[in-house]
């Protein structure tokens, strides 16, 4: 509770947590001349910059280059044996991160916001008590409040797992060695990126997935091609398995599966999802309710159950991508100003940064058929794209789903080099409501990966 000696500071905007949506809104609001307090426990710039997107994609780049160098002979080059220097690898990753953290910190201060480093806890509606990292306490009340505390890696309740010192997507990037043997628990986006990354660094990697097949939310044919690419790169994939018990002894981890098999490894990486950072926030005092998993409950305007209190990013249950969090910022900014912007109908791109990349937007074939529409399906092997041949990167397949009657593009899945970049071309066409014929007949530069769209939309399989 707020004591009689606690002076309550009133501000126009109070942001709890400095992730992409929250920090962008805080800076934007402060630059307009309003008083803003943003509370952050210490991860300047948010999860993406410090322990997620940016450091992992930095290491993905290194792993891809190691794989390319190992096959440089096919390009007429002799580069010798490829060796991973862990010290330089970490310096590369930490250099990218530190530069972006410094940039964010400078932008925070230049915006005029009050950046408060500490731990916030709600003590009343729109009011937090902040235990400052350097000692002391502040009580701040916002005319509007935005909760942006994010998520942390989930550690499943498997006997012996916590005691076996497992790695997570965050701690694995601080390793002082490359494990000879690595077991990855979880076959989702995070698990697969790390699995292929460490295989590229020389680890023997096994992925344990409880699902019937890899990436069950993607079409089976596309996921099957990706699975084959991973196997080619030395990743062992075990499906329909669950971990029964984990134990570490004398530096060796033993993973017992529910089918009786036992695996040994130097380390086990747990990539089974993320939990919201809401425990200890005092949300009840703020009148903010959460769902059964602890995520803040919001409507399609990102408003919570409490007045003038909003939640954005991962903690609000939004798809866990930084680009979605940035769009959450746009929505809340508009709605704080009295608008009625909504999350409904957002065309969200999904990008998996394996090698080759998997990029998808819109409906899968399975989802499109479930709508009852009369659809056409196009598929193109990446090896048919001239640019892929010049790169000597011909693994993968492109797939498109189109409404037969309206010629509307319902969705695409692009598995191949630079797919995340090409995806934006299709997404733009979908935003504009263009028929697929505009991409089929468009004048696209040669030789580029995007040129493959000309051929994709003539490669009908049904």
Can you put this structure into words, describing what you see?
The chain has about 450 residues and is α/β, with parallel strands linked by helices. The protein folds into three domains: about 210 residues, FAD/NAD(P)-binding domain; about 110 residues, FAD/NAD(P)-binding domain (3-Layer(bba) Sandwich); about 100 residues, Enolase-like, domain 1. It contains 13 helices and 20 strands. Helix 1 runs parallel beside helix 8, helix 3 packs antiparallel against helix 4 and helix 3 packs across helix 5. The protein is globular, with a radius of gyration of 24 Å. About 40% of the residues are buried.
Which fold name corresponds to the CATH topology of the largest domain? FAD/NAD(P)-binding domain
Mind describing the biggest β-sheet?
5 strands, mixed, barrel
- Class from helix and strand fractions: alpha/beta
Overall pLDDT? 96
Ends apart, CA distance between termini? 65 Å
Number of strands: 20
Supply the number of helical segments: 13
Q: What is the overall silhouette? A: globular
Which percent range describes the beta-strand content? Answer: 25-35%
Helical amount: 25-40%
CATH structural class of the largest domain: Alpha Beta
């Amino acid at each position: 509770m707020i004591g009689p000696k606690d002076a309550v500071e009133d501000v126009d905007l109070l942001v709890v947590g400095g992730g992409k949506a929250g920090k962008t809104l805080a800076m934007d609001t402060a630059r307009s001349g309003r008083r803003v307090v943003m509370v952050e426990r210490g991860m300047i710039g948010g999860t993406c910059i410090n322990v997620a997107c940016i450091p992992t994609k930095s290491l993905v780049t290194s792993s891809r280059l190691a794989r390319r160098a190992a096959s440089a002979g096919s390009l007429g080059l002799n580069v010798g044996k490829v060796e991973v220097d862990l010290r330089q690898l970490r310096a590369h990753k930490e250099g990218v991160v530190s530069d972006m953290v410094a940039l964010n910190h400078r932008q925070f201060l230049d915006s005029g916001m009050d950046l408060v480093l500490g731990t916030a806890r709600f003590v009343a509606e729109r009011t937090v008590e902040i235990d400052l990292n350097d000692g002391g306490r502040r009580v701040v009340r916002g005319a509007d409040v935005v909760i942006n505390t994010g998520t942390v890696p989930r550690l499943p309740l498997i006997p012996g797992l916590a005691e076996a010192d497992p790695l997570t997507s965050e701690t694995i990037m601080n390793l002082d060695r490359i494990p000879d043997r690595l077991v990855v628990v979880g076959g989702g986006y995070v698990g697969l990126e790390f699995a292929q990354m460490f295989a590229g660094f020389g680890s023997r990697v096994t992925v344990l997935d409880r699902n019937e097949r890899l990436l069950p939310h993607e079409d089976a044919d596309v996921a099957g091609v990706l699975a084959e690419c991973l196997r080619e790169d030395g990743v062992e994939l075990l499906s329909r398995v669950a971990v029964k018990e984990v134990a570490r002894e004398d530096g060796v981890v033993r993973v017992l599966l529910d089918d009786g098999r036992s695996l040994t490894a130097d380390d086990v990486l747990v990539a089974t999802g993320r939990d919201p950072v809401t425990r200890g926030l005092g949300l009840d005092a703020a009148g903010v309710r959460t769902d059964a998993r602890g995520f803040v409950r919001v409507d399609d305007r990102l408003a919570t159950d409490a007045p003038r209190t909003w939640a954005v990013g991962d903690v609000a249950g939004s798809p866990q991508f930084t680009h979605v969090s940035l769009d959450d910022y746009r929505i809340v900014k508009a709605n704080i100003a009295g608008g009625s912007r909504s999350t409904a109908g957002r065309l969200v791109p999904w990008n998996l940064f394996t090698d080759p990349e998997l990029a998808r937007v819109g409906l899968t074939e399975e989802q499109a058929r479930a709508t009852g529409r009369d659809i056409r399906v196009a598929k193109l092997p990446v090896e048919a794209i001239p640019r892929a041949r010049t790169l000597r990167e011909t693994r993968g397949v492109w797939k498109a789903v189109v409404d037969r009657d309206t010629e509307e593009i319902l969705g695409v899945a692009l598995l191949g080099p630079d797919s995340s970049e090409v995806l934006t071309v299709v997404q733009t066409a979908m935003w504009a409501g263009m028929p697929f014929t505009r991409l089929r007949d468009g004048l696209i530069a040669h030789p580029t990966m995007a040129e493959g769209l000309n051929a994709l939309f003539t490669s009908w399989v049904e």
